[in-house]
Amino acid sequence: MKTISLLSLLLVFSCIDKKEQIFDNEKISVDLDITGNINLSELATDIEYIWFKTGEQQILARPNKMFFTDNLIFIEENFSEKVFVFDLSGNFLNTIGEEGEGPFQNMTLDDFSVHNDTVWIKDSKLKKLIGFDFEGKPLQEKNLTLTRGPFIRGDNFSLFSTNNNSDIGYRIIRLDDSGQIQGFFDIAPWLEHKLFKGINRFIFDKRLNTFYFLLPYSNELVLFDGNGNFKNLIKLDFGKYNFKPDDWARFDNIQDQINYAIENNLVFSINNYFITKDRIWIYVQPENKEGNYLIFDHQLNLVDQFNSINNDLDGFNFNSIPWSASEDAIYYRFRSQQLMEQFENLNEAAKYQESKISGFVRKNPEVFDDPDNLILIKISLK
């Protein structure tokens, strides 16, 4: 194990040229009044229900971001501030991270990033990155003078969202392992110090060698190449449903902003996005209206759009905000009590026919002993 120290970043930030930045961008107009649904059989080959079995000592109280490898599932747990590791069947293997203020310990878990064979945890309270192997053995530390915010690890560099820290001056920074800094996107006054922590943050698509990040408080998707250099900025234009920058600036607190969005049926934020083997999925829901699945190919052409998915494979109604994705699947999460309530709403024929949901309920009655057990619904894509 080794500890690696970086230069004090705030001193470096003060030396970055603050000249106005102009980035190439592309606007894509989307009509959110288009309605319709799609049968699951048109999208998917299979549906699977995965119960995460943690035992009494390890509890998934506040699960958040997920990440998949070929044989593992990593889940950020924001109550214990650890990363939980499972196999693909939901069997618990180990946790990553140890509470404390000493070497290789963390007090907060802002985000985690899996790069090659290392899991990196970002701790803004202790101001460091900690690298672990997949079994939780600590490998190295990097000192880091940064505030809260998402990040992703690349080859010899990291990309960070600064959570609109005006002391840094940019919304995203690229920091390489030698301490060199590059900043992207100036921070408007109304954005200063607005915090964000969504389900999906930075995403890396290894097939296209591209990093993606959805800029908070905007409808803009940023693309970086595999070296962390800016490629493109995609602005989604929702027309009358846009929450405009001038509207953001009118209100001093987030609750007033939310109330304004509700009153005017505006898109307060894009709910989630993820990348699969040949598609970019974006889920967006104007306040007080139905949600919209927007499906793009990797050239950012809109190839499909629908409001909901009709589960004609086994009848279970899983329609909610999709939680995560792997290369060949999208995932929804339920607590066991929620899943049972939905199951009870099925008609009698659907409950007792030979289907994935009825088989899961019959084979795993103990999952419902605890109403808070976490269940993942895996939709395997065509």
Report the sheet with the most strands, covering strand number, pairing sense and barrel closure. Answer: 5 strands, mixed
Uncertain runs: 1-22
What is the count of helical runs?
7
Rounded mean pLDDT score: 89
Based on secondary structure, the structural category is mainly beta
Q: Count all strands and give the number.
A: 28
Fraction of residues in helix = 10-25%
The general outline is globular
Q: C-alpha Rg, in Å?
A: 21 Å
Q: End-to-end distance, in Å? A: 43 Å
Q: Largest sheet, order of strands side by side? A: 1-12-11-10-9
Question: What fraction of the residues are assigned to beta strands by DSSP?
Answer: 35-45%
Short description:
With 382 residues, the protein is mainly beta. The chain contains seven helices and 28 strands.
List keywords for this structure.
5-stranded mixed sheet, globular, mainly beta
Question: What is the topological layout?
Answer:
Elements: E1 2-4, H1 9-13, E2 25-29, E3 37-39, H2 40-43, E4 44-51, E5 63-68, E6 72-77, E7 82-87, E8 92-96, E9 111-115, E10 118-123, E11 128-132, E12 138-143, E13 151-154, E14 157-161, E15 170-176, E16 181-186, E17 203-205, E18 210-214, E19 220-225, E20 230-237, H3 245-250, H4 254-264, E21 270-275, E22 280-284, E23 292-296, E24 302-306, E25 308-310, E26 324-326, E27 329-335, H5 336-344, H6 348-352, H7 356-363, E28 374-381
Protein name: 6-bladed beta-propeller
Pfam families: DUF5128 (PF17170)
